[in-house]
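Reading a protein record of the kind used here takes only a little practice. The record below shows the convention in full.

——
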Amino acid sequence: MPRSIWSGAISFGLVTVPIHVVGATEDHSIRFHRYHLADQGRIRTRKVCELEDREVGSDEIGKGYELATSQIVPITDEDLRELPLPTARAIEIVAFVPLASVDPIRIGDGYYLQPDGQVAAKPYKLLRQALARSSKVAVARYAWSGRERLGLLRVRGEAIVLHAMRWPDEIRDPSSLTPPPVEVSEEEIEGALALMDTMTRDDLEGDEFRDTYTEAVAELIEAKREHRRPETVPEPEERPGQVLDLMAALQQSVSKAKESRGEDDHAEGDHAEVRELPGRKKKAPAGKTPGAGGAAKKPAGEKPTGGRATGGKATSKKAAPKKETSKSTAGKKTATKEPAGKKATARRPRSA
């Protein structure tokens, strides 16, 4: 069990819950020391008094605030503990809010709050069950390490977790980092949503969420200790060149995500598709209307409709897909291929 970092109480209303604060997370990063390359002697950082030019011990070191280069106001731990703050020895809950209303950028490290003895068991459980049933989190104030802080209390299993929070003025304004105005089409948004669907998970379990870098460093250290070559790293998959077509990039991403999950890209009932952008409609030449020079092919079961005379040119309705029209030459008739079972009807453009 990790050691207690801080002792105090949770306070909300007239209820007080004595607690110990213990670490909720562990750091498994591999640490390196600095050493002298010539003889592998350890290189250390020593605390030296710049006036006496000698190393000093921890019992000789204090803290203070520098008003000027030659004037320092000493501050002791006792001074900080005696500050007239209600949060000096308590985590004081000031509000309950929905978790969705808290910007995640303000949430920091997490700590478990452990009830301090039997007397704290019942109010601790009361607060935990109330938080769980309300689906809300508590926002609290507390003082640690010489400063007052903001915190967030939530439920995790049978425990209450305290997350350190940043004050609003500690969050930098990102407006200077936003990209210039651009237009994004509805098809591109739908393509991005389709990609999100193929990458959606129910949990964060699996090899994708394993710290492979730390594992690789550990293997490197072990290989060097045993005087052998470390395992070779497989060559990364060659990436295609830069894709300038955003829709094409989304389509490729969706297909790749399905392939990695063992899904058939053309499976029946799969709606995670990216539709291609519709081509731009070509403008008709000056003095002509679309469809001039031939009648449009009609779907099976319907009779072809003659075009209306407009400025001496024959105009037909918008053609259905897969039409086959033979171009007419000057003074000749224009033939339109009808569906199977229908006779082709030739029409001569009316004269003005």
Observations:
- DSSP finds five helices and 13 strands in the chain.
- Residues 246-260 form the longest helix (15 residues).
- The first strand starts at residue 4 and ends at 12.
